[in-house]
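Per your request, structure below.
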């Protein structure tokens, strides 16, 4: 798989008009709007059948430091500009009808970075939570995080808990931040949790299956990602949602995260919609929308 070139707006085709009058497309779009009234995929990507809009998009927001260095600025400048992009892309996901967006914002491995950069990232996280809390509440967005709490600054934890509680009953969309997150650690934590219950007699070993382990992951209650987007051209998944992306479609673009626009998102969704997802079978599974 090679990174894709920058996108250009799709030219009109007869298929676009066909979707606009196709009863199945209209019905699928109506289902998306019933959950989120702002969803309007037939207007934004008329060449994509609404039933092929991914339900859950996970993003590795890579390239902030590289973007800044190429412009002669410190890496922190890139992170600030990358944070600015988050709202635009998340809101566009909502307009497309995406239900869940999970963003890789800080990994367990990121603690190895210089202290000044880590402090800047934590400060950006806190500023984002404080600045977006009211907007998330107003737009009906549920906020949650995945990852370990240990090691995070007290101010960040307090903000996470406050925004999580304030938006817990929202149902239009879910914004999930992978914060202090590593997938191998997450799976190990889940296995340890199961082992504790077995040792205490609350669970029999033969009762442990994929569903049991998935229920102990920090993503429990969320659908698995349908589409994984990675910016900045790196061809790896970097210990991100290893269990959950077993059947996700991967989309890699050379564009660094601060330059990632709704047009790039549209092209990623178009590319996803063109693919056949068999999940190990011969025929594609029925659309979930």
């Amino acid at each position: 798989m090679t990174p894709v070139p920058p996108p250009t707006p799709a030219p009109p085709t007869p298929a676009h008009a066909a979707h606009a009058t196709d009863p199945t497309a209209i019905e699928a779009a109506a289902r998306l709007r019933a959950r989120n009234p702002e969803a309007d995929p037939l207007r934004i990507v008329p060449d994509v059948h609404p039933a092929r809009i991914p339900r859950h998009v996970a993003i590795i927001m890579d390239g902030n430091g590289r973007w800044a260095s190429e412009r002669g600025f410190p890496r922190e400048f890139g992170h600030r500009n990358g944070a600015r992009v988050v709202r635009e892309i998340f809101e566009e996901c909502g307009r497309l009808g995406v239900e869940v967006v999970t963003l890789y914002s800080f990994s367990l491995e990121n603690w190895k970075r210089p202290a000044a950069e880590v402090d800047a990232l934590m400060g950006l996280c806190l500023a984002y939570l404080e600045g977006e809390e009211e907007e998330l509440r107003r737009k009906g967005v549920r906020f949650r995080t995945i990852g370990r709490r240990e090691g995070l600054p007290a101010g960040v934890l307090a903000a996470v808990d406050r925004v999580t509680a304030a938006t817990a009953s929202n149902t239009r969309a879910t914004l999930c931040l992978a914060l202090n997150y590593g997938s191998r650690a997450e799976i190990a934590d889940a296995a340890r949790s199961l082992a504790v219950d077995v040792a205490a007699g609350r669970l029999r070993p033969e009762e442990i299956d994929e569903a049991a382990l998935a229920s102990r992951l920090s993503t429990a209650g969320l659908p698995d990602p349908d589409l994984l987007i990675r910016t900045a051209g790196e061809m790896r998944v970097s210990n991100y949602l290893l269990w959950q992306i077993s059947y996700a479609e991967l989309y890699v673009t050379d564009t660094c995260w601060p330059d990632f626009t709704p047009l790039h998102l549209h092209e990623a969704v178009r590319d996803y919609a063109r693919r056949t997802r068999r999940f190990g079978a011969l025929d594609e599974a029925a659309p979930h929308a």
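The chain has one domain: 55-274.

Regards,
D.
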